[in-house]
């Protein structure tokens, strides 16, 4: 209710200022519901497996809403797979700005889907990473898991569970399991919950594996690793003086910068 209200306030302000037809609004999330929270606070990912902190559909898949009166037709629905990195490339295109040519951009321009209502889907791959490890790849309706891991035994035994009540034998694992020779492949259209991997003996599995393997090989061949931005932690960079703290006399002085190597058990 709070989120619905706050978004409504933003849209109402745009309309009140008379600039809604010149403003592109995009609403989405960076992850699925955090099922680790209590059942009444963590939210629900519907039919999708697990939640935030995993590379299963419940952890990575979320809806999006694009709003731009006079440019995006009301009520249209697209099944085009996309990711938040596409927003950078798309925003440049909408602004008529050429993307920089001194770096590799992972994002795709979505203007054809957004503005023209194109129902022709671009068969682009989506890569699911956990740290530096490519865990899974989606291509069209198929998703191949090269590694599976929900959370560590240590976390699980301390009550940390990213897949409460959703354990799937051989799929949700508390040790990082390698499937690189025979990845687990799911048809998300028929099995959005990732419960029934295709049999490796079927023709369908072999054909899909060939297609996805070619995509993975090209991806790994051209991949340019970036500098990790979550590998160091520093309390000094936290917000110690949020807006309004002066009036309340609650502003805190940040501590001396003392970065350390972050530890991310999941």
From TrEMBL:
Residue ranges of every copy of the Sulfatase N-terminal domain listed in the record: 2-97
Classification via InterPro entries: Alkaline_phosphatase_core_sf, Sulfatase, Sulfatase_N
Domain of life assignment: Eukaryota
Cofactor(s) the protein requires to work: Ca(2+)
GO molecular function: arylsulfatase activity
Pfam families for this protein: Sulfatase, Sulfatase_C
Family the entry assigns: Belongs to the sulfatase family.
PANTHER family the record matches: ARYLSULFATASE FAMILY MEMBER (PTHR42693), N-ACETYLGALACTOSAMINE-6-SULFATASE (PTHR42693:SF47)
Protein name: Sulfatase N-terminal domain-containing protein
Upper taxonomic lineage: Eukaryota, Metazoa, Chordata, Craniata, Vertebrata
């Amino acid at each position: 209710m709070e989120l619905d209200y706050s978004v409504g306030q933003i849209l109402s302000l745009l309309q009140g200022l008379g600039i809604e037809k010149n403003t592109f609004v995009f609403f989405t999330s960076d992850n699925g519901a955090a099922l680790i929270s209590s059942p009444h606070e963590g939210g629900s990912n519907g039919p999708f497996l697990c939640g935030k902190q995993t590379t299963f559909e419940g952890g990575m898949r979320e809806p999006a809403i694009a709003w731009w009166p006079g440019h995006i037709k009301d009520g249209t629905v697209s099944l085009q797979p996309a990711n938040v990195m596409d927003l950078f490339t798309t925003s440049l295109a909408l602004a008529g700005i050429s993307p920089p040519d001194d770096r590799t951009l992972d994002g795709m321009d979505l203007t054809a889907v957004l503005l023209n209502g194109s129902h022709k889907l671009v068969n682009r791959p989506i890569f699911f990473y956990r740290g530096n490890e490519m865990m899974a790849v989606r291509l069209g309706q198929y998703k191949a898991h090269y590694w599976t891991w929900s959370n560590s035994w240590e976390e699980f035994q301390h009550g940390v569970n990213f897949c409460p009540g959703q354990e799937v034998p051989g799929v949700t694992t508390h040790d990082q399991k390698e499937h690189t020779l025979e990845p687990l492949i799911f048809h998300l259209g028929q099995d959005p919950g990732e419960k029934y991997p295709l049999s490796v003996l079927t023709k369908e599995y072999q054909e899909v594996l060939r297609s996805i393997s070619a995509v993975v090989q090209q991806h790994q061949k051209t991949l340019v690793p970036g500098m990790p931005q979550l590998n160091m932690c520093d309390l000094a960079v936290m917000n110690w003086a949020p807006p309004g703290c002066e009036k309340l006399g609650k502003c805190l002085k940040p501590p001396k910068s003392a970065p350390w190597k972050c530890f991310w058990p999941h």
